[in-house]
C-alpha cells in the first residue's frame, strides 16, 4: 500500500498548497484573481469528472497499471507546471494533476478492502486518514517556505520529486488486488458522468466568486438534470458505470451520509477559521498558520487512533464521542471575538480537531466494511464522489452565510469590519454544527457488519455414513 499512500498524500498536498501561491501567480502572469482561481477550480473539476469513472476503470484495467498511469500524469503535470511559460499551459499541467488525484483516491480505499482482512480495516483506514490529514497540516507551511526561498515553481518541482518516489514504491510493492470483470462499455453513461459531475462541481465552486449568476445557475441546473438521468440509467442497465445499488445497502448508505456531513463540516470550519483569525482578530497570516498547526497535528494523530479504536469498539461509540466533542468545540467558536485571548481559539480548534476524525474514520471504516468484496471499488468511488461534491457545496454555503452575516451586521448599524466578519463567521459555524447534528441522528440508524465468519471444524462419523 506504500505507493498508494504516498500517491494520495501527494494529491492532498497539491490540493492544500495552492491557495498560498495565487497572489504570486497573479503577479507573474498578469492575471486577475478570478482567472488565478481556476488553479483551484480546474483541479476540483478534474477530480469531479474522473472520480466517478474509477470504479468502472478498475473492472477493466489492472489496479497497478491504473495507479502507475495516474502517477505518470501527475509527474508530467508537475513538470509542465514547473516550466510553464504562460498561465494556460500552467492550468493544463494542474488539470493533469487533478486527473491523477481523482484516480488514486478511490483506488486506495478499494485496495484496502482487498489487501486487509475485515478485522484490520479500521487500522488500515486510520493510516489512510493519517496520510490524507497530514497533507493539510504541512502543505501551506511547505508552500510558503518554498515561495520565500525560491519561487512558486519550486512547489511543483517538489511534487515531481515525490511523484517519482511514489512511482518507484508502486512499481516495487503494489499488487493488483481487484479482479477485472470487463463489463460492457456504456458510452452514454461515461458522457453523462463527465457532463453531470463536471457542471455540478464547476457551478458550486464558482458560487463564491460569481454568486448566483446566470452562468452558475445554468451549470447547476444542467448538472442536476444530467446526474438524475445518469442515476436512472445506472439502476436500469446490466453493466452500470457506477453500481449505485451500494446506496441501497443501509449499512453502507448511512455511514456514507455521515462521512459527507462530517467532511462538509470540516471544510466549512477550515474555510472560516483562518480568515477569522486574520480579518476578525487582526493576526498576520504567518501567526494564523502557526495557530492552526497544533490542531492539525492532533487531528492527524487522532485519525490514526480512531482507526485502531474502531476495530475494538465499532463505529457508534466513536461517532457519539466525536459528535459531542465537535459540538463543544464548535460552540466555543461562538465565543471568539475581536479581542478574544488566543488560548480560547486554540482550545476550541483542538477540541473540534479531536472530534472530527472519530466521526469520519469510524464512519468510513463502517461503510467499507459493510460492502461485499465485488462492490468495494464502486463503494469507495461513491463515498469519495459524495465527499467532493458535498465539500464543494459546504464551502459555497459557508461563503454565502458569511456574507449574509456581514450584511446583517452592517444593516443593524455596525461599523467595525472586524466585528462584522466575526458575526458573519458565526452563521457559518452554526451551519457546521447543524451538519454534526445530522451525523448524530444518523448514528442511531447505523448497522455494523460483523467480523468475517471463521471456519469451524465439524466432526463427521464416517462409519455411520457408510452404514
UniProtKB/TrEMBL annotation:
<feature type="transmembrane region" description="Helical">
    <location>
        <begin position="318"/>
        <end position="336"/>
    </location>
</feature>
<dbReference type="GO" id="GO:0022857">
    <property type="term" value="F:transmembrane transporter activity"/>
</dbReference>
<feature type="transmembrane region" description="Helical">
    <location>
        <begin position="427"/>
        <end position="446"/>
    </location>
</feature>
<keyword id="KW-1133">Transmembrane helix</keyword>
<feature type="transmembrane region" description="Helical">
    <location>
        <begin position="212"/>
        <end position="232"/>
    </location>
</feature>
<feature type="transmembrane region" description="Helical">
    <location>
        <begin position="342"/>
        <end position="359"/>
    </location>
</feature>
<feature type="transmembrane region" description="Helical">
    <location>
        <begin position="389"/>
        <end position="407"/>
    </location>
</feature>
<keyword id="KW-0812">Transmembrane</keyword>
<feature type="transmembrane region" description="Helical">
    <location>
        <begin position="35"/>
        <end position="58"/>
    </location>
</feature>
<dbReference type="InterPro" id="IPR036259">
    <property type="entry name" value="MFS_trans_sf"/>
</dbReference>
<feature type="transmembrane region" description="Helical">
    <location>
        <begin position="187"/>
        <end position="206"/>
    </location>
</feature>
<feature type="transmembrane region" description="Helical">
    <location>
        <begin position="285"/>
        <end position="306"/>
    </location>
</feature>
<keyword id="KW-0472">Membrane</keyword>
<feature type="transmembrane region" description="Helical">
    <location>
        <begin position="95"/>
        <end position="116"/>
    </location>
</feature>
<dbReference type="Pfam" id="PF07690">
    <property type="entry name" value="MFS_1"/>
</dbReference>
<protein>
    <submittedName>
        <fullName>Drug:proton antiporter</fullName>
    </submittedName>
</protein>
<feature type="transmembrane region" description="Helical">
    <location>
        <begin position="244"/>
        <end position="273"/>
    </location>
</feature>
<dbReference type="InterPro" id="IPR011701">
    <property type="entry name" value="MFS"/>
</dbReference>
<feature type="transmembrane region" description="Helical">
    <location>
        <begin position="128"/>
        <end position="149"/>
    </location>
</feature>
<dbReference type="GO" id="GO:0005886">
    <property type="term" value="C:plasma membrane"/>
</dbReference>
<feature type="transmembrane region" description="Helical">
    <location>
        <begin position="65"/>
        <end position="89"/>
    </location>
</feature>
<dbReference type="InterPro" id="IPR020846">
    <property type="entry name" value="MFS_dom"/>
</dbReference>
<feature type="domain" description="Major facilitator superfamily (MFS) profile">
    <location>
        <begin position="1"/>
        <end position="450"/>
    </location>
</feature>
<feature type="transmembrane region" description="Helical">
    <location>
        <begin position="155"/>
        <end position="175"/>
    </location>
</feature>
Amino acid at each position: 500500500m506504500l505507493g498508494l499512500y504516498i500517491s494520495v498524500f501527494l494529491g492532498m498536498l497539491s490540493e492544500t498548497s495552492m491557495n498560498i501561491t495565487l497572489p504570486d501567480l497573479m503577479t507573474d502572469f498578469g492575471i486577475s484573481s478570478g482567472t488565478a482561481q481556476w488553479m483551484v477550480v480546474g483541479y476540483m473539476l478534474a477530480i469531479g469528472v474522473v472520480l466517478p469513472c474509477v470504479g468502472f476503470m478498475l473492472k477493466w484495467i489492472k489496479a497497478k497499471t491504473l495507479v502507475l498511469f495516474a502517477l505518470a500524469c501527475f509527474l508530467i503535470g508537475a513538470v509542465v507546471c514547473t516550466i510553464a511559460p504562460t498561465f494556460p499551459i500552467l492550468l493544463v499541467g494542474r488539470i493533469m494533476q487533478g486527473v491523477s488525484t481523482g484516480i488514486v483516491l478511490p483506488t486506495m480505499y478499494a485496495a484496502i478492502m482487498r489487501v486487509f482482512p475485515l478485522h484490520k480495516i479500521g487500522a488500515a483506514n486510520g493510516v489512510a486518514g493519517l496520510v490524507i490529514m497530514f497533507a493539510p497540516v504541512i502543505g501551506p507551511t511547505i508552500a510558503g517556505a518554498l515561495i520565500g526561498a525560491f519561487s512558486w515553481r519550486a512547489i511543483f518541482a517538489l511534487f515531481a520529486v515525490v511523484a517519482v518516489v511514489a512511482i518507484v514504491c508502486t512499481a516495487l510493492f503494489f499488487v493488483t488486488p481487484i479482479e477485472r470483470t470487463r463489463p460492457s462499455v456504456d458510452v452514454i453513461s461515461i458522457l453523462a458522468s463527465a457532463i453531470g459531475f463536471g457542471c455540478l462541481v464547476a457551478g458550486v465552486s464558482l458560487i463564491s466568486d460569481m454568486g448566483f449568476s446566470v452562468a452558475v445557475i445554468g451549470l447547476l441546473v444542467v448538472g442536476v438534470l444530467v446526474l438524475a438521468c445518469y442515476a436512472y440509467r445506472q439502476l436500469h442497465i446490466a453493466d452500470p458505470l457506477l453500481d449505485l445499488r451500494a446506496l441501497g445497502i443501509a449499512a453502507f448508505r448511512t455511514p456514507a451520509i455521515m462521512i459527507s456531513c462530517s467532511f462538509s463540516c470540516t471544510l466549512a470550519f477550515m474555510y472560516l477559521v483562518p480568515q477569522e483569525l486574520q480579518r476578525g482578530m487582526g493576526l498576520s497570516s504567518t501567526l494564523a498558520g502557526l495557530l492552526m498547526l497544533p490542531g492539525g497535528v492532533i487531528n492527524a494523530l487522532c485519525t490514526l487512533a480512531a482507526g485502531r479504536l474502531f476495530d475494538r469498539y465499532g463505529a457508534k461509540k466513536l461517532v457519539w464521542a466525536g459528535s459531542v466533542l465537535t459540538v463543544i468545540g464548535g460552540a466555543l467558536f461562538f465565543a471568539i471575538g475581536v479581542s478574544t485571548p488566543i488560548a480560547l481559539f486554540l482550545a476550541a480548534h483542538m477540541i473540534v480537531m479531536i472530534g472530527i476524525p472519530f466521526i469520519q474514520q469510524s464512519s468510513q471504516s463502517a461503510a467499507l466494511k459493510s460492502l461485499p468484496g465485488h462492490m468495494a471499488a464502486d463503494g469507495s468511488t461513491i463515498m469519495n464522489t459524495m465527499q467532493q461534491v458535498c465539500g464543494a457545496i459546504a464551502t459555497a454555503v459557508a461563503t454565502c452565510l458569511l456574507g449574509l452575516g456581514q450584511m446583517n451586521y452592517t444593516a443593524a448599524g455596525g461599523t467595525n469590519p472586524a466585528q462584522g466578519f466575526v458575526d458573519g463567521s458565526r452563521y457559518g459555524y452554526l451551519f457546521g454544527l447543524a451538519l454534526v447534528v445530522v451525523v448524530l441522528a444518523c448514528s442511531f440508524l447505523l448497522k455494523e457488519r460483523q467480523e468475517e465468519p471463521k471456519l469451524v471444524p465439524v466432526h463427521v462419523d464416517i462409519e455411520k455414513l457408510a452404514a
